[in-house]
Amino acid sequence: MKKLLTRHETYVFLAIVVFSIIITSINPSFFTIENLFDLLKSYSLMGTFAIGMLFVLISGGIDISFTATATITGYVVAVLLLKYGEGLNILSVFLIAGGIGILLGLFNAVIIYFFKIPSIITTIATLNIYYGILTVVSKGKWLYGFPTWFGDFNNIRVFTLYTADGNPYGLSIITVIWFALILIGWFILRYTILGRSIYAMGGNPASAQRAGFNLLGLNLFVYSFMGLMAGIGSVIQALLVQTVAPNSLVGKEMDVIAAVVLGGASLTGGTGTMLGTILGVTLIAIMGNGLTLMHVSSLWYKVIIGFVILVSVGVSAYRSKRSTRKHIITEVN
Amino acid sequence: MAEPFLALRKVSKHYAGVTALDKVDFDIQKGEIHCLAGENGSGKSTIIKIISETVKADPGSVIEIKGHAVHGNKAIDAINKGIQVIYQDPSLFPNLTVAENIALGGFVASHRKLINWKELRRGAEKAMARIDVRLPLDAIVREISIADQQLVAICRALTRDVELLIMDEPTASLTKKEVDSLLAVVTDMKSKGIATMFVSHKLNEILQIADRVSVIRDGKMVGTYPGSELNDEKLTILMTGKKVEYQRFVAGKNGNNPILECQWLSRRGEYKDINFKLFPGEILGITGLLGSGRTELALSLFGISQPDTGEILFNGKPVNIRSIQDAMRLGIAYVPEDRLTQGLVNNQSVGKNIIVTTLDSLVNRFKLLDQGKVTDSIQRWIKDLTIKIPSVESPVQTLSGGNQQRVVLAKWIATQPRVLILDGPTIGIDVAAKFDIHKIIRELAEKGIAIILISEEIPEVYNNCNRVLVMHKGCILGEYDTRQATQEDIQNHVNGAY
Q1: Is the Cβ pair A203, B143 closer than 8 Å?
Q2: Which CATH number is associated with domain A2-332?
Q3: B94 touches chain A (CB under 8 A)
Q4: Which of B280, B282, B290 shows the shortest CA–CA distance to B173?
Q5: Deepest of A178, B235, B320, B416, by most Cβ within 10 A of its Cβ?
């Protein structure tokens, strides 16, 4: 019990419970299975990006460019779908998007590692390069009218229930993809030397080097993994809205970073968990959804998210300050 | 004598024409505790680098491990031969647990892909059992004490087959009690056949358990002596090459009115019922271990924290010191314990660091900085305190510890303080530079400045102060007049408190 109280995740979970109660008391349709499945599907996109971001933050870096990466991979996939639509299948679409994402991520890693440029600067630059090139090439044109199989895949449900008035709903295949990615990410972080090495590098890069860790390899992995998540995310986005617009993702970086930080990952590296990240995404999701259900103007959304992040980061900073203080005092006695 | 584990014969090293080591002979026996003593810049760290094979010695040098010549030039080669170095900063992962810090390196080195948490914990437990230490396996390393972090680093070394453990300045940041338990661990390792090489310039504690002590000066080996034949004083002479006269300080009496007086000063959890008077021209020592309240008291006198109850009198009048600005206005200056993080702007030049406290007095009539006054002021302090620097533009982080401390002193003396509080002014400074700092402090006292010297090194307060207060758990346990008490009296009182 005591251990539970020292964990950041516990507090995020409590916040989720409190918000859920408030929203439900105002609009009971929030706390329904139908709304839950709906939320799980529409926030799979942010959730997928968040997995990649978690890895980057733990390693002690940050990646701002992933939305531009996702825009490129999404656009390439959309062009291919329109041209060779019937010749492709869902697996090849994911592979193409993921592959391009990995390449763009590797480019980030190489610049960060070899030129020793802080990751935030590097990825702001590459965000602009990737997004700029795409805008020039695409001329900002929206793409839609994808093959029917692509639209059908979006409607696959692992199981289906019906509402009282006969509308179907259920667990979407897209949510299942997100859950699978969570499991893979969790396994890497928890049970592989690679995952623990990422934590170690984020905690103290100099020690990691002395202990014989391959820092180049770790950087290449982390940023290409982020690129992979960006690629997969772009396909999820295309599936969800059946349209690819060059300007639909860029600008949403901060929401994803906020969700992961809300879940307990530190911007200075070395800390963060998959569970926390899921909770962070959940909290952002129910607040966005809840505000709509409570008929609050969506313009307030950003203000409220901002406050929640301030409170969350403030509380954890205060708690770590108190724990170091307590630690000093026990050492004295 | 049996064949040594490690032998260096005529080892030299030149860096771009500068001689770092000159034909050094040195050996370490199996299971021996060997100290390598020398001032900063004497070549100690070059020896560590050569033994740990991170740099290559000049041609003609011979290095033998168990009688076999070695030519490796990668750190991993030395590790595979059973040599491990624990650096001053123990190179741990602060965000990971004790168990992971101890055992993760071994997993990486063996090219494993997956973690078996049970096996990892067992490995960590085994390493701890070898030296009979018990640390909580799941504690996050950031949250355990520096001393325990060092034990974690030792345990990590023990997960590999180690025959020689090199420790670079291991006692620099430890309290007396922690040093004692570190020495117990080292003695225990000795009984298991593991040799330890201490590299340090602060050796008084280590001398008790060292089998032999080698002294290096200016890149040359001065000699190797049995630990039992040396004491602090002899060692200092060997290390510096000169006999330093250690004269005791005698305060000149400058009036009978205290400049600063504390009456029943208390702050919850930090210090309690503090009463003392400070007279102009005297050096008042405050000693006590880390956490005794010595630094906390100083912080309150300098306005960084406020006492809960009690009164501070300045020149006989009650004052309320609510901020650093208040303290500076009264003429109180404070040189902090950790000069690197609290006392200096590291990447700025020496000159800018010196004048930062007195900017207000260096302006012309347009309230802009007067470059002439600035240069004069900087030159004056560099000369007065004999700060050795290539140029006033050099960033302070490039200076030696002794010179950095002089910059901090200059910065505060420039404010013309009436009370100067020095917290651990010679921590991490080598012996020769230490004497110079002490000389400066005494000269300041002779000019009538009242000085509070806080230090956990009893010889330092005993030799430089006319009165010494012993603090423990936030209270003043006793006051000693250094003309009457002996150093042992004070030492026993401090130790007796535990």
Answers
A1: no
A2: 1.10.3470
A3: yes
A4: B290
A5: A178
